[in-house]
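Morning run. Coffee first, then this:
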Amino acid sequence: MRRRLPTRAGFAVWRDTTRLRIEERLQRPVRKSFLRLYHERHLHPTNFVTGTEADRGRASWLGVPTWKLPSDMWVYQEILVETRPELVIETGTQYGGSALFYASVFDLLGAGEVVTIDIDTASVHDAVRAHPRVTIIEGSSTDPAVVRAVRERAAERRTMLILDSDHQQAHVAEELRVWSDVVSPGCYLVVEDTALGTEYLPGWGGSLAALDEWLPAHGEFRRDPSREKFLVTVNPGGYLIRDQQPETR
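And here it is:
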C-alpha cells in the first residue's frame, strides 16, 4: 500500500508543533547559558568599578552606562509607547542610564516624567542631572519620607513602577509593600533582576522569592510573559501589569 503524503496544511501543523516543542526544550538552557556569560562579562560584582575602560564594556544610552540587557530596554520602550504612563518611578539609579533612556522615549512621545531614587547619587551622569524630565532623589527607596514625597508627585497621574535597587529579598518585599499600589490600572510594575538567586544566576539575590511570596495576595496584578518574547531577560517573571479590575485568584 502506498503511503499517503501529508497535505500542505498537515505539514504546516507538524512543522509548527515541532518547532514549538524544540523551542520549549531549548529555552531554559539557552537563557541560562546566555545570562551567565553576560553576567560574568558585564555585571558581576567583581566588575563593579568605574572609569572609561570599565564603562566601555557595558551597555550605554547616549554615553551613559546602564546595567540592563538591551533586550529588556527594548521591551521598556514598547511598554512606554503602549501604556503611556505620565510618570515612571525607578528605584536604583547608579549612573542614570536607564532613567535617561525612559526620559528619551518620553521626549519622542512628547510627555512623561521620570523620578529615580538611589541611596547614593554621586555617580549619576551630568547628562541625566540636566535632563528636564528626570528628577533624582537621594535616599532609601523604603524611607517613609522619600516614599511620601514621591507618592505625592504620583497623585492623580498614570504611573509605572520599576524596582531595581537592593535585590535582597527583605528589601524587595518592603518595596512591594510600600510602592505597589501607586501603579495605575493598565500600567506595569517591573521587579528587576528576578534571575538573580535562581537557576539562571545562582547565588546572591532574592527579588523573585519576594515577588512570589507577595503576588498571591495581590490579584490586581498578573504576570505578563509576552514581555519575555526576546527569550533573554534578567527579569523572568518580573513583568507585571495591573488590571483595570482586581482579578479573583
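The chain has a mean pLDDT of 87. Good start to the day.
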